[in-house]
Design brief:
- This protein has 408 residues and is an alpha/beta fold.
- It has a single domain, classed as TIM Barrel, CATH 3.20.20.140.
- The chain contains 16 helices and 8 strands.
- It has an 8-stranded parallel beta sheet with strand order 1-2-3-4-5-6-7-8.
- β6, α12 and β7 form a beta-alpha-beta unit.
- GO terms for molecular function: hydrolase activity.
- InterPro entries: Amidohydro-rel, Metal_Hydrolase.
- This is Amidohydrolase-related domain-containing protein.
- It holds the Pfam family Amidohydro_2.
Length: 408
């Protein structure tokens, strides 16, 4: 009877405790609500792999059932039924139906997805939370903006001095990142080096190589008038500059690790490659995003042995099956201190991503902790500490948010 009461109390806490969503993206504006395939809700695939294959996964079957329940559809409703129902709903109502049950108190939004005005401003999301939304600055987007401005000016002038160009870029990047670090609206930074050139980020920068890369970049830009930061030495320079400035101002730096679309090199997506970088910046808080799946244990190891490394267990909700999610959460807890773990939805575009990212995370965390309590491996107090730290306390401390949990 005592265990039954304790499990009931744990259930209450898991499903009611307010949460800080430490990594998410903005929702689409109403006029763009259907511009992207809705199947992106449950997969990072693209093309036919998304629209035909992703819907034939356990992750999609589970999401379909949960959304059918949320929208009060027949339990036998299928994926297309869910899509038709949401498309027919008033967008504001859809957002509130999805966001209401999440108990998300604060969202940290990376607003650098590059959707050309199709998404709402980060402050717009305050209508769904008890505490103000904060920004996460995506540093590659900042760097690209500066480089484009400099290259446009360069093409109007005569001659190109790569050393002077590098010096100007470095000064402008340092100034922009410092301004963001001092901005109270900015909770931290994020790097997508994992997508661009991989996580084997060099700590040492060679000025000569950088100058050569700037020349190549300028020639490519002159030809195509498009710029994407995918030159390794320049990417590495941007990341190192960010880590230095972030460390000076106490701002965490998030890194995309593991799980991503087919633009990523999976072999270079493991955070194990970041070990030299982690050692080089011991005063900078480094957050490994997306559970680093399928490299979760490696990420947990890094969080366990380095004071400045933290592990986010997000994006696996709803991308993995329930069994897969349970395995990942167990791997997170295998070695990683409970003071180092944080939860996120990686919510983006569709309000359903916030709903599924929250409800599935709460379900799975309860299931994992329940088993440990039944085995007498955890007390109720210990299990409760895991919940409150993972959902709220750790992010509140690491991002210096200064919030108090708002209990509903």
């Amino acid at each position: 009877m005592a265990l039954t009461r304790e499990l009931a109390e744990l259930h209450r806490i898991v499903f009611s405790y307010p949460a800080i969503d430490n990594h998410a993206h903005a929702l689409l504006k109403p006029e763009f609500r259907d511009v992207f395939p809705f199947e992106g809700l449950i997969s990072e695939a693209t093309g036919c792999a998304l629209t035909q294959d992703a819907v034939q996964t356990l992750a999609c079957f589970r999401a379909t059932a949960q959304l059918a329940g949320l929208f009060r559809l027949d339990p036998k409703a299928g994926w297309e039924d869910v899509k038709r129902t949401r498309q027919a709903m008033n967008y504001d109502e859809l957002c509130r139906i999805c966001m209401g049950p999440t108990r998300i108190q604060c969202i940290l939004i990376d607003d650098g997805l590059g959707t050309a005005g199709m998404c709402e401003d980060y402050k717009w999301h305050d209508r769904f939370t008890a505490s103000p939304t904060k920004r996460i600055v995506r540093v590659e987007i900042v760097a690209e903006g500066i480089l484009k401005e400099l290259m446009d000016a360069q093409l109007l002038s005569h001659g190109f001095d790569p050393l002077s160009f590098f010096g100007t870029f470095r000064a402008k990047l340092t100034s922009s990142l410092t301004a963001s670090a001092l901005d109270p609206e900015v909770a931290g930074f994020k790097s997508i080096a994992c997508y661009r050139t991989g996580l084997d980020i060099s700590v040492q920068q060679d000025t000569v190589v950088l100058e050569q890369e700037f020349i190549k970049m300028l020639l490519q830009y002159e030809s195509a008038r498009q710029l994407r930061l995918e030159h390794k030495s320049i990417n590495d320079f941007v990341v190192n500059t960010t880590l230095r400035i972030a460390g000076q101002h106490g701002k965490p730096v998030q890194f995309h690790t593991g799980l991503g679309d087919n633009d990523i090199s999976l072999a270079r997506a493991t955070p194990a490659l970041m070990q030299p970088l982690i050692k080089a910046y011991p005063n900078t808080k480094i957050v490994l995003l997306h559970s680093a799946y399928p490299y979760t244990q490696q990420a947990g190891y890094l969080a366990a042995v380095y004071m400045n490394v933290y592990l986010d267990f997000g994006e696996i909700f709803p991308f993995l099956s329930a069994d897969g999610q349970r395995d990942v959460v167990k791997q997170v807890l295998e070695l990683c201190p409970i003071t180092k773990i944080m939860w996120s939805t990686d919510g983006h575009y569709w309000p359903e991503s916030y709903y599924l990212g929250t409800i599935q995370a709460r379900e799975v965390l309860f299931q994992v902790l329940e088993v440990s309590m039944r085995r007498e491996e955890l007390t109720l107090a210990q299990a409760t500490a895991i919940v409150t730290k993972a959902f709220f306390e750790n992010a509140n401390r690491i991002y210096n948010l200064g919030l108090t949990p708002v209990m509903v």
